[in-house]
Amino acid sequence: MKEYFAFQWHITDDCDQRCKHCYIFSEYNKKNIESMTYEQMEEVVANCEDFCEVYNRTPYFYITGGDPILHPDFWRLTELLKNKSIPFTILGNPFHLTYEVCKRLKEKGCEKYQLSIDGMRETHDWFRKPGSFDITLEKIPVIKKAGIRAVIMTTVSGINIKEVPDIIDTVVEHGADVFAFARYCPTSNEKDTGVTAEEYRNLLEICDKKFKKYKAEGRNTYFNKKDHLWTLYEYETGEFKIPDNAEEGVIYGGCNCGNCHITILPKGDIYACRRVQDSKVSNIFEDRLADVWVCQMEEYRDYNKFKKCSKCELKAWCRGCPAVAKGTTGDFYGEDPQCWKEII
């Protein structure tokens, strides 16, 4: 089977919430709601299929927004993907999920549905919307009953970092299939996530112990170590070792930006990473994705430009989060503020 290529596709900005850490509305509270037409969505799918044919990959869509289910042609899009046998994951809200909706999603080819929990009840509802915490937890078994994997994602900042261990306990007890967390990326209005490197490493250590405890107990929740600083942590603990046959100049892992991921926004803008505010490289209605990948996207693959990571033995496997570095320092290739490793 061909390796998947991930397209994070924002089909609409329409959303039931205005989360305080949302990178869509964070600086434009009166932002106009953008959505693709169905004809444009057909064009996007065709362009992505062409890309995958050129590079011998299989398309995989992470469909999001906003809340994609609010798009008036959402179900037409899922039918299109079903007819083309293209699998997808939904990144959305819990408010419109019923068993009937989830069953229909499963029939169209949806493999996972990702929801967010960004703190315990008081904190989460402050971030998002009153009642959101309880509704999100209530929808986990509904998603699972339909045969879709329920994913919980947490965005970590100085506001909620101490609550992450309790979040883990909560999502495990509610039977989430997957749990992961990523760090908040500051916008131009902020230059600090409120988390020091030491605090973040301590969080990884606490979470690592919890993950291993639950695995030993036979719990079914899979803990996705999404943040690439997990590689640094496991390198220090001895769980990750640099392979003896590693080739110089080859990138084996780390940040997917410019590597195996593309973001497409409702107006067709192509971003190297949605979390990097000014990483627009082209527009999918103007250019062929296969050409953009080897031309405009190249500037995000100059790994020797990383001010700190280029000097690190883990460059080919880690590189932290350039989006957090960009939001904090203004430099995509700047130092990840939560990386605790000293480079001599």
Polypeptide structure, described:
This protein starts with a strand and ends in a 15-residue tail after the last helix. 32% of the residues lie in helices and 15% in strands. It is an alpha/beta fold and 344 residues long. It is globular. The protein has a ten-stranded mixed β-sheet. The model has no long low-confidence stretch (mean pLDDT 93). Helix 1 (38-54) packs parallel to helix 2.
Offer a few descriptive terms.
alpha/beta; ten-stranded mixed beta sheet; 344 residues
> What does the main sheet amount to?
10 strands, mixed
Give the uncertain stretches in residue-range form.
Answer: none
C-alpha Rg (nearest Å): 20 Å
User: How large a portion of the residues is in β-strands, by DSSP E?
Assistant: 15-25%
Report the order of strands and helices.
Answer: EHEHEHEHHEHEHEHEEEHH
Shape: globular
Summary, kept brief:
The protein has helices spanning 38-54, 74-83, 99-108, 121-127, 132-145, 164-173, 197-216, 229-237, 289-294, 322-329, and strands spanning 4-10, 58-64, 88-91, 110-116, 149-156, 178-183, 222-224, 261-264, 269-271, 280-283.
